[in-house]
Amino acid sequence: MKKVKGLRWLVVSLVGLATVINYIDRNALAVMWPGIAEDLGMGKEDYALILSFFMIAYAIGQTAFGKIFDQVGTRVGFLLSIVIWSASIALHAVAKSVLSFGIFRFTLGFGEAGNWPGATKSNAEWFPVKERALAQGIFNSGASLGAVISAPIIAWLYVSIGWQATFVIIAALGLIWIIPWLIVYKSSPDTHPWITEEERAYILKGQKPEQEASVQSTDDYAPSLSQLLKHKQSWAVILMRFFIDPVWWLFVSWLPIYLADQFGFDVKQIGLFAWVPYVGAAMGSLFGGWLVGLWLRKGWSVNKARKSVIYLGCLIMLPPLVMTAYAATPLIAVLLIAVILFGFQVAIGNIQTLPSDYFSGKSVGSLAGVSGSAAVLGVLITTWIVPVITVTSYVPFFVLGAALVPMALLSLGLLGGKITPIKKSVSQ
């Protein structure tokens, strides 16, 4: 059978493409909301309630799909996830009330949640430690690219064919994606028939940091979920996601509404501006992965390289979070938000690799899922805070984001310890 060189890059590219589709589907409601709200007589509080349906399901789905991926594998896990979310976004076309939007948003959130623990698990399987952050950056850049292209495309489709038909068209993207996925992703690299022997050896040999390679059985510690929660490092990952993910979602969920409220934008104008911040996010995704890889190649430990990039990303975020609160024009606002999302993606790509830095095997998807659920809980809380604090001004909106970043850094500093594979203790 013919072998494919660099098969791992084809795999991560497909995962990144799934993430592009994920964000096109997810962002469609936010971009079209001013028009939908006008058609159906809904307001900001209705939007927050509908988002809450999504986020609750997203929290459930992160943990559920973390276990699903660990049990059925990456190939089938992604298939289940994208079928559920594609069907759900299509059903948005027949929604007429807060309840019906909420139900379809709930199933959408559950299905879309699988993309994230699935990507973490896929990257842990297909990439050596020194390349995982770059692979995660490529995957995360899919989210940014999806956000970049979704605003103008969704706005154009909305103006051309209306919001109902737009939901149906974008649903087809996920179903089409299934075809190359099932063809390419036949198994993990240890048994995949297309992989070269050189690439297989490179991946499997690099699954652990070089300084840990001589350690035998304790390297493969794969605790159960209850055992995971006994480690402070697990709680570092969980709390970091709880505090930092809401910063991203403040803009994913509320940027179009912010532009409409603050600058009087309609759907067409939102499409012209709302994509700009995600160019910064895409650049941050790739830069964060590249930078940690560079430092690892220079001989830095995983602990030093990973923490340095996480701290750098968080520090980049803070000044523009404060400055955007007082932005005088929409162009200045979206450019500052681009810097915020650049820093966020520099940090989050490395935060999302921590489960595979600390643990191995079937524990990676589980910790990725639980920490993802914690992230959604943080987002859900901020979702309900936003309508209350933005009645007269969006300044508190940005202050809230700025307050969350130091909390994430404290979680890593106090609980993360040394980023290295955790060993099974005698008592365990």
The percent of residues in helical segments reads over 70%
Summed over residues and divided by their number, the pLDDT gives a mean of 87
Biggest beta sheet attributes:
none
- CA distance, first residue to last residue: 44 Å
Structural class: mainly alpha
Low-confidence blocks of residues: 211-218
Number of helices: 17
Total beta-strand segments = 0
| Beta-strand residue percentage | under 5%
Global outline: globular
Q: What's the SSE pattern?
A: HHHHHHHHHHHHHHHHH
The whole-angstrom Rg is 21 Å
Summarize the structure in words.
The protein has 17 helices and no strands. It is mainly α and 428 residues long. Helix 1 packs parallel to helix 6 (129-161) and helix 6 runs antiparallel to helix 11. The longest helix is centred in the N-terminal third of the chain and has 34 residues, at 7-40. The protein starts with 6 loop residues before the first helix and ends in a 13-residue tail after the last helix. The model is unreliable at 211-218 (pLDDT under 50).
